[in-house]
Structures are given as structure tokens and as C-alpha cells.
Amino acid sequence: MAAGSILVSDEVEERRSSALEAAWPGLSRCILRPSGPSADPSLVEIAFFSGDLFPERTRDFVLTLAKSKRLRWLHTFSAGVDHPWFRSLRERGVRITTSSGAAAVPIAQTVALYLLALSRNLPAWLEAQRRRAWEPHEVQDLQGLVLGVLGLGPIGLEVARLGAALRMRVIGLRRKARGDEPCETWPLSRLHELLPRADAVVLALPLTEGTRHILDASAIAVMKPGAVLVNVGRGELVDEPALAAALEKGALRGAGLDVFEKEPLPSESSLWSLPGVIVTPHASGRTAGNSARAELIFLDNLGRFSRGEALLNEAE
């Protein structure tokens, strides 16, 4: 398959030069350096939006790619492609693939952190430690509790496995059960049947028109009293004012939140200071190994693209 050139960052070029050549011998490269692209960006037909470009160099990458009218395929280090920029590319006919699964294990481990911390009211212990106060309190057993996992992509599947390892009863929700899930699996249409039963609810869904505010005020109202919510999907999956209201009145035990409708989370948001709420800055999966795993997925896809084969993780 003939091609123009591929746009990659200078860091990817340095780390993966030999692998790029092996995946597609002779493919010309346009290398994005801090000083600018190394070649004519108008000839770019393939692009890799790698993790080293986000967020500081994202603007440079987008502006460079905007000069190409020949772009056919973009691979991104991220798992989600709900941003309007990705939609605009798809409307132009550009194929988009993701690195879904690269961060699944570290994100799931952070979910386990939230569940353990909330079940033990870790924020209260930390506050007592700051005051040098000896204030023991009872903790909640996780074993035997019902863990509802909304979304069984790579992250949700790993969360389900860890939930089972914590001896929780895991019920996963996805559009349609496949039969190979590591947990009991219901269709997403049974959400309002699950919510009153689940002691903990984990959101690991992609953001679509069908999932936006899937936990709205009516859904939050039927959640089990004293349940906890963990969101590592997208902030827009949750009606934040409704969640804050439920937390303020004690209807929910707490929440572990890594994503928000507006990021950074505004300083005036009550979520910062509500008791039982753990706020993290969209960092649940930021480990050193993610970039390497994302690059390997891209290199696999690059070889597939060169051979005209089906691509991994192609956005629908």
C-alpha cells in the first residue's frame, strides 16, 4: 500500500525508530520536534498521537496535523475518542484507532484503592493523623458486598477480576453479554435493577449519547443507601449536582472520582470538600508503563495497516 508519510513525535522516533521501520519498511517519517515538523506536514497520511505529546504539546500536534488534507488514519494513546476533535476527523473519513487496554491494569488497581479507602474511611484516618489524634473507627467488610461494574471493556473486566479477588459479588453491565466475562453479566438495560442492590458502583463506560448522564438524578435516587460510587470513565457519565446532593444528605457513603464534567475540577465545586469523597486529577492510570504499551498497540496496527488488515481498537 503506497503512503505519504507518518507523523510521530521526536520521543517516539528516538525510542521506536527500528520498530517503525520493521512495521512498515521505507515509510517516510515526519517527526514533530519542539522546533516544528521535520518534513512537509501536508504529505502526512498516518499519525500517532502519543502520550508524550499530552497535554503540553497537543496544540502543536493538532496544528501540524491540520496542514494535512491526506490524513487517512490516526492512532491515539488514549482509550476514549469522544472529544470533538476526534469526531471532526471521523467526519472527514479518517480512521481512528485507540490504545484501549494499555492502562486497564493500573486504572483497575486505582479502583481497588478507592474501594478499600472508602470502605475503611481512610480520609477520616488521614485527617486524624494530621491532628495527631488517636481516633479508631469500625471499617466495612468488602467481602460479600455487591460490586456493580458498568462497562466491561478492558478496564471494567480488570475491575471485575480484582473485585472477585476481594471476595465481592461482581455484577457487570454491558450492552450484550458475550458469555466469556469473568463475572455475572447483565444487559445495560437492567441498570435500575442493579443500582438498588449494589454496595459499590464503578463507572468504566465510554461516553456516548446513550451513556451521557447515565447516572442522572433518577438513577442516583435508586442507588442503595450507603453505597459508594467510583468513576474512572468520563465525567459526563454522572450528573454532578445530583451526586453532590446525594453525598451532602448522606444518601451515599462516599465516592472515588477521577474524572469530572469540567476538568480541572473548579475550585468552587463542593466535591472537593465533601466528607467521604476522594478526588484525583484524572490520573488513575498514569503509570510509566502506559506509553510503552500504547506504542506497542500502535506498532501492531501500523503493520496491519501496511498489509491492509483489520485494525485493533478501531472507533465505530
Low-confidence stretches: none
> Order of helices and strands, N to C?
EHEEEHEHEHHEHEEHEHEHEEH
Number of strands: 13
Distance between the termini: 23 Å
Query: Structurally, how many domains make up the residues?
Result: 2
Determine the structural class based on helices, strands and strand pairing.
alpha/beta
CATH architecture of the largest domain: 3-Layer(aba) Sandwich
Largest sheet: 7 strands, parallel
Mean pLDDT over the full residue set: 96
The CATH homologous superfamily of the largest domain? NAD(P)-binding Rossmann-like Domain
So how many helices? 10
Helix content: 25-40%
Q: Whole-number radius of gyration?
A: 22 Å
Might you state the CATH topology name of the largest domain? Rossmann fold
- CATH class of the largest domain, anyone? Alpha Beta
Report on this structure.
The protein is α/β, with parallel strands linked by helices and 316 residues long. It folds into 2 domains: 5-102 and 288-307, NAD(P)-binding Rossmann-like Domain (Rossmann fold); 104-279, NAD(P)-binding Rossmann-like Domain (Rossmann fold, 3-Layer(aba) Sandwich). Helices cover 33% and strands 18% of the residues. It contains 10 helices and 13 strands. It has a 7-stranded parallel sheet with strand order 9-8-7-10-11-12-13, covered by helices on one side. Strands 3-2-1-4-5-6 form a 6-stranded mixed sheet, with helices on both faces. Helix 1 (10-23) runs parallel beside helix 10 (289-307). The model has no long low-confidence stretch (mean pLDDT 96).
